[in-house]
Amino acid sequence: MSDHPFENTYELSNEQLIKLEEAEDEMLRNNLGKAEDILLELLGEDDECIPVLNNLAHLYGRHFSDFEKAVELYDKVLRLEPDNAWARDARRRYQRYVGRD
């Protein structure tokens, strides 16, 4: 049995899962710079990791109000996984702030 309460759909390593969980915890604690550092480190190791891209896009859009960067990251998720409804909906939400459709 896994230590993580969700299905590991993207087959992330245990280290990736731990770091992703740590980044999410830092966001909850409002340690946004630390969360960004962790996510950017993970992205440096795998620049097509959809959970990392989604979390980073969420961080930029919701917490940093960097809507352009959030849309850019969600665009990448959708290039990798066109049926990702969560990314599509989140991208649409931020596109209205940057004037892109």
Summarize the structure.
By secondary structure, the protein is mainly α. It contains 5 helices and no strands.
Walk me through what this model shows:
Helix 1 packs antiparallel against helix 2 (32-45), helix 2 (32-45) packs antiparallel against helix 3 and helix 4 runs antiparallel to helix 5. Helix content is 70%, strand content 0%. The chain has a single domain (14-98), classed as Tetratricopeptide repeat domain (Serine Threonine Protein Phosphatase 5, Tetratricopeptide repeat), CATH 1.25.40. The N and C termini lie far apart (43 Å). It is globular and about 40 Å long. The model has no long low-confidence stretch (mean pLDDT 92). The protein is mainly α.
- 3D shape: globular
Distance between the termini: 43 Å
Give, in order, the helices and strands. HHHHH
**Class from secondary-structure proportions:** mainly alpha
Find the CATH topology.
Serine Threonine Protein Phosphatase 5, Tetratricopeptide repeat
**How would you sum up the major sheet?**
none
**Second rung of CATH, namely the architecture:** Alpha Horseshoe
Helical percentage: over 70%
Mean pLDDT over the residues: 92
Write out key terms for the chains shown.
single chain; 101 residues; mainly alpha; Serine Threonine Protein Phosphatase 5, Tetratricopeptide repeat; 70% helix; globular
Mind sketching the topology for me?
Layout lengths: L13 H15 L3 H14 L4 H14 L3 H14 L4 H14 L3
Helix pairs in contact: 1-2, 2-3, 3-4, 4-5
